[in-house]
Specification:
Elements lengths: L4 H18 L25 H16 L8 H23 L14 H10 L6 H19 L2 H22 L12 H10 L8 E2 L5 E2 L9 H24 L12 H21 L12 H24 L7 H8 L1 H15 L6 H5 L3 H24 L7
Antiparallel strand pairs: 1-2
């Protein structure tokens, strides 16, 4: 089956923006749209992660179309891909697989190595994608029907929100200090294996993982939302007697459906935020609708210009970036973790202002693009 070009372009745009926001010249000098929201709210940067999950869900609809139902072969595919992505994420956390700085210079290497292992984070971006893939993939293959999948999404959102409300503590179930999600990760993995990047009002670092285990339920919802849109693209083409991979003949009607669906999802997210704040760290129900709405609107925009109007060549650089998205993510992490111990400090040369910080981010993105372009020219597509 040929690749869906609009989806590759959306994924490529997401990869490019990920490289920009994750690799500034200086974290102290960044334009506001390139920063995450402190807790509640949503900046363009906060859309990168759900866009990845949405794209994975869309692609799942095409890759799962060859299965008649929930078979052993389908289950093995879900397990292999889900666990594979999770493992790659763990390896990215562990790279370069030994401590680059000694905790205790007077202790042995082995003692420092053990201490290093005892303080490595377990969860992460790919880990949540892997678990969300396991949950969401199993549900969509089991239920198949869009109405049943929507019902399952509603149940997951209700259960997740209910857990936050019932077990949340002061100052509130949706706050950094009061949510139950972070406490679950600390109980399961231990404080030293959980992310400590958030600070409370007193300025103290708090153990909370924005890619924690409980939130994988909501990650699965974002994935299933993508699956439903991917299924709409696929079923619409088949209904018109067309090859589902021949995007030149894709009717504009499906673009309108995706766009309207995106607008309705955005409205739902904004309305729901009255009671449940839009929060990427908690991956709240309102965040699922809000980020999913933007995903659909952007996909509809790209599908219109690429599949309906035929301007595919204009988007070729992003198509290249999206063809090996997993490679781009891994290489982005590997390059940064390799350059830092070797003495490279981007802030030394590009950290004077927001502009120079952005310049380095664009240079880094160009490096990742070069790797992607090489793989694309060689027709190498690395999958799990």
């Amino acid at each position: 089956m040929k690749r869906y070009v609009s989806l590759d372009v959306l994924r490529g745009l997401t990869v490019a923006f990920m490289c920009i926001v994750n690799n500034p010249g200086s974290w102290a000098h960044m334009y506001p749209p390139l920063r995450h929201a402190p807790w509640n709210g949503c900046t363009p940067t906060d859309l990168v992660y759900p866009f990845f999950l949405f794209c994975a869900g869309c692609a799942m609809a095409f890759s799962f179309s060859k299965f008649e139902g929930f078979s052993k072969k389908a289950a093995l595919k879900i397990l292999r891909r889900g666990f594979g992505i999770f493992l790659v994420g763990v390896l990215c956390n562990l790279y370069p697989f030994f401590p680059t700085s000694l905790h205790d210079p007077d202790a042995s290497f082995w003692s420092n190595f053990v201490y290093w292992l005892q303080h490595k984070r377990i969860m992460g971006v790919l880990q949540r994608i892997g678990i969300s893939y396991l949950i969401g993939g199993t549900i969509v293959m089991w239920l198949r029907s869009p109405k049943k999948i929507l019902l399952a999404m509603g149940i997951l959102m209700a259960v997740y929100t209910g857990i936050l409300l019932i077990f949340g503590t002061a100052p509130g179930p949706f706050t950094l200090e009061g949510n139950i999600s972070g406490k679950i990760d600390v109980a399961l993995f231990g404080d030293s294996h959980v992310y400590h990047g958030y600070s409370n009002e007193a300025g103290e670092r708090v153990a909370f993982d924005p890619e924690g285990l409980l939130g994988c339920m909501m990650g699965a919802c974002t994935l299933m939302l993508g699956y439903l849109i991917g299924g709409l693209l696929l079923s619409n083409s088949r209904a018109h007697g067309l090859d589902p991979t021949d995007h030149r003949t894709s009717p504009i009607g499906v673009v309108a459906k995706v766009f309207v669906g995106g607008c309705l999802s955005l409205i739902a997210g904004v309305v729901l935020s009255i009671w449940i704040p839009i929060s990427k760290p908690l991956w709240s129900a309102s965040y699922v609708f809000y980020a999913g709405g933007w995903s659909m609107v952007c996909l509809a925009f790209l599908s219109y210009w690429i599949d309906v109007r035929g301007y595919e060549k204009v988007f070729t650089p992003f198509k290249i970036m999206g063809t090996n998205a997993l490679v781009a993510f891994v290489m982005s992490a590997v390059l940064v973790k390799t350059a830092s111990p070797l003495g490279w400090n981007s802030a030394r040369y590009f950290g004077a202002s927001e502009f120079t910080s952005l310049v380095w981010a664009l240079i880094f993105t160009l490096i990742i693009f070069t790797i992607q372009w090489f793989l694309y020219r060689k027709k190498i597509i690395i999958k799990i």
